[in-house]
């Protein structure tokens, strides 16, 4: 009984901490945005207030985690989403596997980023810091208020039930422990760009120092979002049980749009940092990227978009959240419309130049964002305005998105080879001859070996190889590989700024992802059949034997387990276990596919439902599918590498700026 | 007792999930079956969230898969099968919307945005050239 009292107290302490954090955020927002000219003293107070907000929200969050861990069912959230038999990791991840808890996690990350700016931003001009922390606090106040008034995670239940109703079985997976926090860190990280953009618009001051500050935050958020999306994709791939890795589901699109916009922002902020150009566009992209992040998080919650990701939604909540979004996003764009013209443009350049290439990148990425946005929202608008229901699914997105990405991938390798201001396209082309030749050779080779099952497959391969190898052209050029002794080349390469390496790796990662997508789309094989224990099946040279079948109880489910042996064409054998689980509390079934990795390819096996006393078995061979996620990891790694660049580590922006301002070659 | 068991089996059938394409639905003719798969991938499972009937485990998706195969066996072309389903379930059943009055804006949005962007860049460049000359 004493323990129960103690838990009850911790829940109320958490509740109080969240209320207090919101109150502090409200005051900070008013002070920061209205009195931003007050200088250093206010900046110090706001910085401390930001750190305090983080501590308070962390206390609130831990209180909920505590209630889930000890299965304190006086907390309604725990009753609805937890179960005392659930493994510890899923008790913890269950905290954010629902509407209220995921909002709390969202706010925790929001205040964490605010606290990071406060901690690392001591050297920022006081006026700028006041505005940034003010804008950040405004977001905390708005979403904290929304949480407390409409979706309170601290709602209690009396008398507490003896047992919880468990978490959706599909969410009882290590994926839920990792995917939402990564995704949210990405989404919410862009709030820093948004707050910096607001600060620039309100103060009317924006310069290269601004871009130098914004770019690492953009990069950090982008790295998280890249990992979050890749993780979500792999999770869907192994959990949903039929091996699809991207569905163009509205919620996937909602996370993909900020990623596309964030990628564009990374590139445009580069132009601003190095050449003091594209200021207005960079501000615009900062606002767009965070607005899309907000849409990504909350359009789902509003209940407007229905999808597998929708947690229980109710109309009043939807209306409130839409109002908050309209005021925040609308306000930001109004401010932009009123103040953007006051920002002076600088840095002239010719169309064929590094700047020109980065603008082309932005044009295609921004159009892709538009295409995905229209495709996602159009059915809703048409239904609301004309009463006609249509579906916009994968075939539409593949076509429009693919058509926009093909030219982008085609011109991408030229970008890093073009000097700033004015460039020679022929000279850049000459350095890419090797990459082009290699790409053409490999495309012909692979097409000849694999056969052309889809007419566009060779084009996809060509673009994938081209981007992958083209990424190395700048390294080869700078290392003078083949023209000077090898040792000298290595010394040169090691001495290169990390941003050069980061660009090459990032672009190579994209190429690898493209190659994985093309390969699995064109050459995946599938077999759907019925098997009994003792029987065998064949697919793409792999032989599968169904050894035995048994029913095993798990901690909170019953499992039908099939034991299989797969023999590779080379001869090696592996044993696999595929399961169909039925969860005790909800009666919901899930499938646990068995996946065996061969190099970069995977053999994917799913045990289907029983049919006339035999078992339905589905097997897929997915050639080079791992490249899709390896490419994403390489891209994220490239982002991390860029964050460790000298100019950020040493923290001497003046000197470093001069170094990187030198023309590319 | 036997009737009770039959009843129990029936109820269990309804409760057990039916997963995507089952061997008992599939056609013997591999060419026809492949056509059925291709058509299925472009048809929406009407009771699901954004899934094609080829991927979905819903009962309705199964019914539609069987229907698609029946039409193919009856000798329909791919387009005729699609039209057959559109006549019954409306354009909502198509994952790739047809180009018509309702979807004109949807289809031209991306090309229009790209054209607008290019035009904007052209204007911006022209303005900067004039700026430099003056």
Describe the overall structure:
Chain A has four domains: 1-167, no CATH class; 173-423, no CATH class; 432-518 and 629-661, no CATH class; 525-622, no CATH class. Chain A is built from 22 helices and nine strands. Chain A has helices at 2-34, 40-69, 76-81, 88-93, 99-120, 126-150, 174-203, 208-239, 250-275, 279-301, 315-339, 354-386, 394-411, 425-431, 433-450, 457-470, 473-479, 486-495, 498-523, 626-643, 646-649, 653-661, and strands at 525-531, 536-539, 542-553, 557-567, 573-583, 589-592, 594-598, 601-611, 614-622. Chain A is globular, with a radius of gyration of 27 Å. By secondary structure, chain B is an all-alpha fold. Chain B has two domains: 19-96, Helicase, Ruva Protein, domain 3 (Orthogonal Bundle), CATH 1.10.8; 99-134. Chain B contains five helices and no strands. In chain B, α2 crosses α3 (59-73). The longest helix of chain B has 30 residues, at 104-133. Chain B is elongated and about 75 Å long. Chains A and B meet through α12, α13, β1 and β8 of A and α5 of B.
Task: Give the proportion of residues in helices of chain A.
Answer: 55-70%
How many domains of chain B? The number is 2
The CATH class of the largest domain in chain B: Mainly Alpha
Task: Please give the domain count of chain A.
Answer: 4
Tell me the distance between the termini of chain A.
74 Å
H and E order of chain B: HHHHH
Task: Find the count of extended strands of chain A (DSSP E, 2+ residues).
Answer: 9
